[in-house]
Amino acid sequence: MESKIIVWLLVGLLGFGFLWQPGRSEEIVKFSLTKNPELIGNNQSAKSSEKDTARKNGKTHTGRALLESAALITGSTINYWRHYADFQDDWQFKFTWKDQKRRFFTAESPKFDSNAFWFNWTHAASGATYYNMARTNGLNNRVSFLFSFGLSTLWETACEWREIISINDMVFTSFGGPAIGEPLFQISSFFTHKGGLFNRFLSLVFDPFLPVNNWFDRKKGPAWNSEEDGAADDFSLFLGVRKVSLSPADQRAVADSETRYAQFNFGLDMDLFTIPGYLENKSLNSFRWDTLSVNVFLDFNFSPAGLEEFNIKTKAVLFGYVHQRSYLDGQGQPHGNNFFIGYGTYFEVYRKRPIAWYDSTLDVPENGNNLSDARFYNRPTPTEFTDKLSTISPMGLVFNIGHFQPSFKWQWNTGIYGDFAMVNALAYNFYSGDHDVSGVKSTLLNWGYYYAVGITISSGVKADWHRWSINGDMAYESFDSIQGQDRYQFLGVVTEDFKIHDDLWKWRLKIGYRIPKTPLELALVSESVKRNGRILEVNSNYLEHRLFYQLRLII
């Protein structure tokens, strides 16, 4: 593995050295559907349209944020009770003092719930919705987090009074606010500072609440509730083909399909620095209490068998120290060095195509056996759960350093995060083949995943040199299960609450070439994922290599 990465790096560097011609004039075309393509010299900063000068710092609409939140939580509660039959498996408390006292003050609750994987990770998106009710009304990221935490608490304690107070839902909903909501808000804000119908549409897609609240305040300026205009480092849509090889080839955690070796791939990759003056001729040296940078990455892979895998990642650095030194050269072009260190948060979910009926969003197959008990579904053994993971990182430390000059810039970013996660137990398929699984954790028994704490360490370098770009990054994620907090722990039915460990290594290298006088880039991406899992004496692992051929549209 290491030798292949070194070879790719050497090929990329040799390509740069052979094809780059110092001093050659370059032109980059930025994509737009609202006007003629804009030619931007590589020796200039790619600037957006002028900032909306009507925006005033400190102008907030707290009352409107509370009204919008109240409307949302009321509508969600009505919908919940209208479809009460879908949630009766989770009901175990009555609206009496005796039951509610058990719910708040005994070992029965708060606890981890036993819901399906897809149902639980989507709570992070609910948190982003709560968060943006506040953020798009002028409130800062810290107060907006209080909205996601407060509304999550209200929902878990009051609206769902028949159910346990779910620890995992509280964590994913509360911290999903800044981890997902802040990147969506910042990117939507970025497009509100642009002119034209297409940019308004993009703003609406990323954060529908921002255009709505800007419309309410349209007399004060079309981007009144938006954040200050940021510097786009990489905004691209991509599509292409993904080829995959797997070792060992019979690993059931990865869906086996004759067509999976040639999959259709598409997605988007967006990086945005939200520091005014960053990557421009401006000196900076201060602690900033507002967001420093955000990232959104979406990746979907299809074969004729269906969606083979999807990946969603969002990151935000919410505050920190910023430093930049810059100057103009003899031709009046900016050169500079910069760095920041800040508090980061992170969300990730990936899912491979299920191959068993019980690993999907359904509890039982159509016309299949009824559930014998809400705790224990009928799962054939050995199981065939495919790989999945969702991580929320409440806190992290992020360091970024970079350099920019005409025709060349680079950035190096490193982060370390503390994680709460839902992790597919990679070794469980093998473990279930020759062990009695009736007393294992309820989520493990029913859905193949467990709740864990862990750590994520990531590091990446990206460089742009004339028409060429190179991105390389790696990440290590390690998880250990949490014991003693299962929803049914108090009944004594979880008798095998053993420790579980999983970890993941990922390496990725992208080399891109921008087609002259177009907004298009040709990219070759090499990626490898190494997975390991352990339950007691049972171990499992796989190594997956992916090769992507992509066409990218630079926005």
Characteristic key phrases:
555 residues; alpha+beta; twelve-stranded antiparallel barrel; two-stranded antiparallel ribbon; 11 helices; 26% helix
Number of strands: 15
**Between the first and last Cα atoms, what is the distance in angstroms?**
34 Å
Mean pLDDT over all positions: 84
**Ranges with pLDDT <50 over ≥5 residues?**
1-57, 367-374
Q: Order of strands side by side in the largest beta sheet?
A: 3-4-6-7-8-9-10-11-12-13-14-15
Strand content of the residues, in percent? 35-45%
Structural class assignment: alpha+beta
Please outline the major beta sheet: 12 strands, antiparallel, barrel
Task: Output the radius of gyration.
Answer: 25 Å
Helix content: 25-40%
Q: What is the N-to-C order of secondary-structure elements (H for helix, E for strand)?
A: HEEHHHHHHHHEEEEEEEEHHEEEEE
In DSSP terms (H or I, runs of 4 or more residues), the helix count works out at 11
Shape: globular
Give the SSE map.
Layout: H1 2-19, E1 27-30, E2 38-41, H2 62-82, H3 97-105, H4 117-121, H5 123-135, H6 141-159, H7 167-192, H8 197-206, H9 209-216, E3 231-247, E4 263-273, E5 284-288, E6 293-303, E7 306-328, E8 334-352, E9 388-405, E10 408-424, H10 428-434, H11 442-447, E11 449-465, E12 468-481, E13 500-514, E14 520-535, E15 538-554
Antiparallel strand pairs: 1-2, 3-4, 3-15, 4-6, 5-7, 6-7, 7-8, 8-9, 9-10, 10-11, 11-12, 12-13, 13-14, 14-15
Helix pairs in contact: 2-5, 5-6, 5-7, 6-7, 7-8
